[in-house]
Design a protein that fits this description.
3-stranded antiparallel sheet, binds zinc ion, 6 helices, about 45% helix, alpha+beta, about 180 residues
Length: about 180
């Protein structure tokens, strides 16, 4: 009984937080397959911000929203209300953000790019500064979370480091042999 109540309270607090988030940042309102905003009763459990990988969301999700809101408001309330993010996901180890079009002459693209750069240095699982890039995917992880990929500690030295170019990485591996 107590567990059920606790669960209900938790959902209620997520819903309350999402309603506040969507009111402040209309561009993360959940949408249907045609890109239409869902009515309030349907979006309580999640927002578009929840399409962002967890670690990145923890590290800078709301700050990204705040920066976008600031840029959009330079073009007026209408721009704030008509801009919509479709999806935020990871591709080739980097945060990609898809939207419905940016206001002309806005700095929105720069803001999105800035956060994509930041994602390359942030653990995708927990949000702490990343140290390693996973083999093949180039997804950034901190030292603790990369071990969740079933790598052994002894294998870490063979991984590419965050901020290390492929050339530097190859040179380092060759030196080791
Ligand atoms: Zn981590």
């Amino acid at each position: 009984m107590f567990k059920k109540l606790k669960e209900a309270l938790k959902i209620h607090s997520i819903q309350r937080k999402n309603i506040i988030l969507v009111k402040k940042y209309p561009f993360i309102t959940p949408i249907d397959d045609l890109g239409r905003r869902l009515p309030k009763k349907n979006y309580k459990n999640y927002t578009i911000l929840d399409t962002m990988p967890t670690g990145w969301k923890i590290a800078f999700g709301e700050q990204l929203c705040e920066d976008l809101r600031f840029e959009l408001l330079k073009f007026g309330e209408d721009s704030l209300n008509s801009y919509q993010i479709i999806n935020m996901n990871e591709k080739y180890g980097i945060l990609r953000i898809y939207d419905n079009g940016k206001p002309n002459n806005s700095r929105i693209a720069d803001v999105l790019d800035q956060y994509s750069q930041m994602s390359m240095q942030t653990c995708i699982v927990c949000g702490k500064p990343a140290k390693f890039l996973a083999p093949e995917t180039d997804i950034p992880y901190c030292e603790t979370c990369i071990l969740l990929l079933h790598l052994k500690t002894s294998q870490l030295a063979a991984l590419r480091l965050v901020g290390e170019s492929y050339e530097e990485y190859e040179e380092r591996l060759l030196k080791k042999d």
